[in-house]
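Lay summary. Proteins are chains of building blocks that fold into shapes, and those shapes determine what they do. In this project we predict the shape from the chain. Here is one chain we studied, written as its sequence of building blocks.
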Amino acid sequence: MAMMNRVAIAGLGPRGMAHLRGFLENPERFEVVGISDLVNEKVAAAIAEFGEIPAFADARTMLEATRPDVFCFCTPPSVRLSLARLAVEFGVRGVAMEKPLAVSLSEARQLRDLLDGAGIRTVVCLQHKYLKQMRRLQMVVESGALGELNTIEASCRSWLSVVGVHYIDYALWIAGNRRATRVCGHVHGTGKLDNPHPSPDYVLGHWTLDNGCRVCFQSGIDAPDYVPGKLHTNSRLTCHGTHGYAWADTEGGWGTLNRETGGVLVESRDPGWPEQWPELQKPYSADFADWLDDKSRVHPCNLAQAYHGFEIATAMYLSALENRVVDLPLAELPEEPLVERMRRELPEEPKQ
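And here is the predicted shape, written in a compact code that computers can read:
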């Protein structure tokens, strides 16, 4: 029998509002019992849009008053670990958070171990998997029309900690939730290292998955320009197999050439991310409710997968900084956040 889950949400920026909408659109599975944000105007805007919801000045006060089943926090990565500690302290059953997990792998591992150790089922919002064109791509791959996958290309023009973490995750997902075993990488550019979502301006990586499939990854301003004039939605996932290839992009594009199309390229275009995003949080949240009810129905955006994606990103940075191939899983964590090393060691590039 489906359970009703009481939800408290901290952080009401654009993504927090999206999560709030997704929970409210599943009224038979979730009851929103509290919202909070350090900016009063954001709380007022949420109530104006969605109606009266109990509001609180901070997350701790909210959790003490509401004792929710699910704690959702949509905050900068630098404060996620402290909120995960609150989740454990107040004994929630589920956590929903945004990406990336943290600003260092050491902190991400602490967060993972803390939540896993408390038995909290955690989802990380890598939600483009719910786009129509991504589901089309998944169906083609799973049908066997491409034959055996041998190469996956994942590319985005936005920087790694904003959109690149999505495409790291989608490469693993489209390969059947495989794991990377060897990683090499290149990084350059310091312009985004001081952003709240820090990363180098460009990352190029090559990973070997545990089934032998290879992933070629690019993120940043020097990545392919598939959708000119776009930034955060200028992204594409391409799968190459023994009998053809298929691709999907964030702007709604999709195409395939395989043995079932008779060697003819078939292409179509769905609405893009800007049109689809209001629809994605509802099925994402419904799948979270299913996982909370049944541990065997693991959410496609689960914490273990997101952590491995963060580990791959760290391995690409480490490979670039130390000029070596990095084997996964990492036996030893870097002694300092690699963002700090990149600030110190990467040369500044002339402004263009």
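What the prediction tells us: Residues 273-293 form the longest helix (21 residues).
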